[in-house]
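User: Structure please.
Assistant: Input sequence and predicted structure:
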Amino acid sequence: MKLLIVTGMSGAGKSTVLKFLEDYNFFCIDNLPPALMMKFAELCYEKGWEIEKVAVGIDIRGGKLFDDFFNALEELKANGYDNKILFLDASDNVLVKRYKETRRLHPLSKGGTILAGITKERELLEDIKEKSDYIIDTSNILTRELKEQIKKIFIDNMDFENLMITVNSFGYKYGIPMDSDLVFDVRFLPNPFYIAELKEYTGNDDPVYNYVMGFEESNEFLEKVVNLLEFLIPYYIREGKNQLVISIGCTGGKHRSVTIAKALGNELICAGHSVIINHNDIEKDKKNKK
């Protein structure tokens, strides 16, 4: 029997992930007190149940019962139960926004602010996060992308590294994305904007993509950035970084930056990394014309 413990920050997507796991034939139970994990594991392992995959949601809602988390893990290990920990995280700003949108109270924010509750919870979960086998930051992940990530790890058994890479394209006239870790300026590349038959297309369209990547400097730039990232990524992982945001910018965020972001993202995916490709400003040109 495989036992997966799903935990992490409140509002980071634990309930959503448990629903995904149910879709993939996991037997799931949410908000189980850690002290009951051993009894639950024994029950699932009883002859005749035929439960092979089990997921348990455990979080701060358990209050003082949550203090038994590490004791429960030691008990499971001592009795030979194979278990892994999936920790779901998100940035403070994103968590605050999610709580405000749903008009829910954070479990630890009674009598205080949402941010104060998040800060307290992050401190309480620090040791658990450090011991987790998988860490997924859901700050910039769409629901379908999160489901695909869960499938890759727990169904397809693909290798997982605790680093989610987001490759953004953006337009400098709209501003550099605030959460960028690395920013690359591709305004030195030939601009399809000035070619009438390409102007209305984007870097997601073959005519523009092939035009931009048809220049030697585009391919040389891409190769050098990929080499740089392959050097940096192992050190980021060793440092404990679990999210890397790479932003590629051109003037309007429609042609060159989209092309290079798409090409870079695909190169990183082919290299086995977990990657999300976003195009921040690709539609803004159309909106401004209306």
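Residues 269 and 276 are 9 Å apart (CA to CA).
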